[in-house]
Amino acid sequence: MPTLLYLHGFNSSPQSIKARQMQEHLQQKRPDIRLICPQLAATPAAAWAQIAAICDDIKEPFGVAGSSLGGFLATRVAEQFGVRAVVINPAVHPHVLLQDYLGEQVNPYTDERYLLTPTHMQELADLRVEAPTCMERIWLLQQQGDEVLDYREALEYYRFARVCIQKGGDHSFVGFSHYCAQIIRFLQL
């Protein structure tokens, strides 16, 4: 059974709107595809260890999709595991972006409390794929109205990937459910 690995963003969960929309799409239209959408660890190195272990355990063909920080991590999955990835309003420089969030955090979905530290920013910097060789296997879904991330950073970083850029929208990627079938086709699942 082919598998879709879906990676949520910072302080999010498998209960996020996009994750639920993808789950509903697969249940209704593609029950032949298994969805793995883990609750990622709050800190970067722990989250990556979790993701790498999941990828190592998947024996069938798989693809990955991720939003925001999940898109950043999906890029690393594509690079390291040789699979296709769809990145939705991805974080390109999370080690810079999340500097403003250092200190105590509470995940609004899980109520988990944790401390975000400079060490975690270094972990993010260490996870970044500096010179990706996998761009032909990546599809960037980006909305210009993203109020959290500068969409131009993603356009520059993913310039050799397949790109869908939309005016308007926001960080949640308005209208995501309309892309579920296309995502599955791109991932060749």
UniProtKB/TrEMBL annotation:
InterPro entries: AB_hydrolase_fold, UPF0227/Esterase_YqiA
Pfam family, one: UPF0227
Name this protein carries in UniProt: Esterase YqiA
